Amino acid sequence: MAEFLIIGADAAGLSAALQIKRKRSAAEVKVVAKGRIISYGACGIPYVLSGEIASPDKLVNFTSKGFQEKTGIVVETGREAVGLDPERREVEVKDLDSGVIRHEPYGRLLIATGAEPKRLPFLDHSLEGVFNLHTVEDLNRIMAFIAAKEPRRAAVIGAGNIGLELAESLSRRGLAYSLVDVLDSPIATWPVFSQKAVLAKIKDKGVDFRPGTAIASIEKRGEEFILHAEKEDLRADIIFSVTGTKPSTGFCGGKLETLPNGAILTDSRARTSVPDIFAAGDCAAVLHRVLGRPAYIPLGSTANKVGRLAGMNMVGAEVEFPGVVGTQIFKFFDLSLARTGLGLEEALQAGFQAEAVSSRANDRSGYYPGAAQVEVEIVFDRPSGRLLGAAAASRVNAAQFIDPAAMAVSAGLTVRDLAWFDAAYAPPYAPVWNALVSAAFQAARF
Amino acid sequence: MAEFLIIGADAAGLSAALQIKRKRSAAEVKVVAKGRIISYGACGIPYVLSGEIASPDKLVNFTSKGFQEKTGIVVETGREAVGLDPERREVEVKDLDSGVIRHEPYGRLLIATGAEPKRLPFLDHSLEGVFNLHTVEDLNRIMAFIAAKEPRRAAVIGAGNIGLELAESLSRRGLAYSLVDVLDSPIATWPVFSQKAVLAKIKDKGVDFRPGTAIASIEKRGEEFILHAEKEDLRADIIFSVTGTKPSTGFCGGKLETLPNGAILTDSRARTSVPDIFAAGDCAAVLHRVLGRPAYIPLGSTANKVGRLAGMNMVGAEVEFPGVVGTQIFKFFDLSLARTGLGLEEALQAGFQAEAVSSRANDRSGYYPGAAQVEVEIVFDRPSGRLLGAAAASRVNAAQFIDPAAMAVSAGLTVRDLAWFDAAYAPPYAPVWNALVSAAFQAARF
């Protein structure tokens, strides 16, 4: 029996395993993982595809052998969890080579199985030339396919942030593509402010974006795909399906409390509804501090943090995770897009008397070489003045603006507090009037 | 009589004047200023000297004529305040052309006279070839001197952040120099963490830095200066005296409460100890939120904010300034140095049971092109865990790390809060483990 059994060997699983070993070096920790490649930076996949990063290997921190040698933690790959029996304290694990199912007993269990791509009902995902962009194994298959078949035209289905990162990658590779989404806007879960910035960049870059396109069926004729949509057909030699992910929790068989989408609910210590079973990472929900309820926001940063916390708590610490504020950032060509907290639409839906104010400013003194415009929007509750969220769009790294906003949202600060924010100022780095501060002045009606 | 009289036409004075006009368009606002050039970005001066910014004109937002035409606010330049009579509600103002002193009556007065360079007892500042780096007028004189005399060797006296910015500028110009300071370290008011980073860069760049050098006297022989110090003499064709500033408040004649250095004390509404007299900018003290007492931290960002607040309050608003946390940033070659709150030494002096923890991390994912190391130090109070301050040093913009820290310090957050900080993450912009978060994990003993 594994004293500590961990299912999943990426951000959350390995963070937890390392914490357990750090806190209790004699602990017997076993990690089982479905994939053959563990411990990689999945968020880097688009930049390998673009050619900016030379090889998929660069994304991988450890092989399972290397990890085991360095840490003393057993990692078994090619093993998929297929069932959970909390009564007997066992996980059913299938050896993907032999097909044999074993029962793995545990003392304490961490579910860190991550997420899996949503499947499109009109697409046979097993066809050659149809890809997700989720794992390094996906990436290797894509690179091999491109090398062998030299596709001339791609269809990217899904204009979320991964679809947009992929679009940029394909542009850099010089591979023609259409970007298709059934919804009317790209990044539909983001604030309208951010959507507008993306739409402007899509136009600027001449991306063949087809919003509001419902695909009825996809047909393969020889090597070519024909995507049948209402208005017209689209042709492609390669299809990328990037319409989001869902928690990989089917094997739990309804034995744990989850959100409707299957994301495992936990308390602030990463404990599930069943004793001695913890969950962390993209398979789990996290508390959204502004909404005050669990939300599904799968992100590598959260997976690492909650994984670490789960590891600490599995060996008896009582550390609490206060939740997230939904901070996200991504790159789309020379546009840096970031958000934190709630957008205006979300805030109104959540019952706040929300208002939004936007502001433009330089990222540094206007007279300093390279000065670039930054646009921010802040969302706040009018009666209390509480800052509920912010979004930023700029040519420079938007983290500079969204991280302090994320801190302010986390701390429950008001737009008055933000107006007097003592931000760094020097001509090469920041302007006298930070865009966040300018927006806050408007919001506070100063 | 000016309903609103403002002494000083830079960040604080003009921000206040504009606010008064915005809130009450019929208000009679008069601004008098000692300098001929108003409304300029003094912090940009080193970058004109270096050649990065083409002309001193780029730093100037408005001429006094242009400002007056645009805003309807009267600005009189070449007028120095030389006396204050609160009983009669008058300021004595000297016309620097004619030498005539006039009495300017006021309804409400804002003192925004800024700061002036400290003078060195061993240096005749009136000698040709001796310069401060404080105003655009200084800059113009320096540029003219360099063009006419083609100095081959400079002495920079003072290794504070301005001295270091100047050193970089001279390196870029290809003008040889020695950087001299009486103290043993550069940026002596900064944390030792930051000093070490500067010392390493000084070595790396081969700067002739001479710490602990007390100059006894400076002699001019022909066009050359000889700086007599204890160990050896130094020779230079041009001298820059950049040993800090003091508030320009001599004309107040002790009629207002001040710090020992002359910085005017105000309440949270920018009101001085005398009714209807306000003060803002580099002539005034501000509340340091961590120290809980007034401090002298002259910065353009604060001057703009408090100037704006003073303007609002002079027309009857009741807006309060919560104070600063001492956020600062500057550039020294390819090093970006920033700080906020207290350094370890300051925190111990202030009576906190302070500890410091440092951490290194990449600024973005290690596999993403251009990744650079960021080093941060956080200072916290051990019993409460309260974050007291932070410092950052990196090749990339350190504002990305110090601004969220500044927000956390302002909000009174703890290192536990910082450990779970929901910072932005994407390979091109930020790493999974933000350096601040890593430091906070150590500090929190997670």
Summarize the structure.
The structure is a homodimer of 446-residue chains. Chain A is α/β, with parallel strands linked by helices and 446 residues long. The first copy, chain A, contains eleven helices and 24 strands.
Please give the most extensive interface between any two protein chains, plus how many residues each contributes: A-B, 67 and 67 residues
Taking pLDDT < 50 over at least 5 consecutive residues as the criterion, the unreliable ranges of chain A are none
Q: How many individual domains of chain A?
A: 3
CATH topology of the largest domain in chain A: FAD/NAD(P)-binding domain
What would your notes on this structure say?
The structure is a homodimer of 446-residue chains. Chain A is an alpha/beta fold. The first copy, chain A, has 3 domains: 2-38 and 58-115 and 246-314, 3-Layer(bba) Sandwich (FAD/NAD(P)-binding domain), CATH 3.50.50.60; 119-241, FAD/NAD(P)-binding domain (3-Layer(bba) Sandwich), CATH 3.50.50.60; 334-443, 3-Layer(bba) Sandwich (FAD/NAD(P)-binding domain). Helix content of chain A is 25%, strand content 28%. Chain A contains 11 helices and 24 strands. Chain A has helices at 11-23, 45-49, 64-71, 136-149, 161-173, 192-204, 300-314, 344-349, 399-410, 415-419, 435-443; strands at 2-7, 29-32, 74-76, 79-85, 90-95, 101-111, 115-117, 130-131, 153-157, 176-180, 208-210, 215-221, 224-229, 233-236, 238-241, 245-247, 277-279, 286-288, 293-295, 328-332, 335-341, 354-362, 373-381, 387-394. In chain A, the strands form 6 sheets. In chain A, strands 1, 2, 3, 4, 5, 6 and 17 form a 7-stranded mixed sheet that branches. In chain A, strand 13 and strand 14 form a beta hairpin. In chain A, helix 1 runs parallel beside helix 7 (300-314). The longest helix of chain A is centred in the last third of the chain and has 15 residues, at 300-314. Chain A is globular and about 65 Å long. Chain A starts with a strand and ends with a helix. The model of chain A has no long low-confidence stretch (mean pLDDT 96). Chains A and B meet through helix 7, strand 20, strand 21 and helix 9 of A and helix 7, strand 20, strand 21 and helix 9 of B.
